[in-house]
């Protein structure tokens, strides 16, 4: 029987887990040695227990607290491997979704930063071709810009995205419909959906933010060829006031967003104003 058992050192070498960790698992009651020598105190494990070690390692990699594993013990003291793996699977799926969300945000930032770097060397005004974007937006109810209202609506969009499981990206700002369509301003945040075509019916899906009694819409829009210019100011309040002032002389659809640059002084601000051609 003893020849079939593994010493704590052998388990450590086989699974890459320190003896100290194996003793800690024992303290938690999630990995009890098959045999403990009453004279030497040496611990021995059965080969059938190696699956338990593997599951514990997986839980650690997934960020599942080890102390919570004790809740999965059966009346006989053994771990309920099937239930624990089901929890691990749900955690892994959630981690994958979070990683995909982070990847979407990173890709969005890198794409926008690359496009902006290409524009920096061009004389103003310039032409910019914008690809199809999915955005979450809400109407702007005033004819003038107000910084507090802008921040409130932007916060509402981010909160709504979190509630709906929609990933907000690093692009946000304001947009306006063409003058012939009413010149209606909206605040928007670019978002990423897992299944964009399926989740947006007839081009848009509307929600209602009860806290602000504000309609929030998800739609695919913005793509097209634009005539662009840049506005610099001491902050976004000044820049967007300039946007509203300039917009009075423009007839096309407008998009105004912050420009990111590593060399920009934090006390300054740049807004890109695009008019659809």
From TrEMBL:
One of its GO terms (molecular function) is DNA-binding transcription factor activity. It holds the Pfam family MerR. Keywords: DNA-binding, Repressor, Transcription, Transcription regulation. SUPFAM superfamilies: Putative DNA-binding domain (SSF46955). The keyword Transcription regulation applies. Residues 5-75 form the HTH merR-type domain. Coiled coil: none annotated. This is HTH merR-type domain-containing protein.
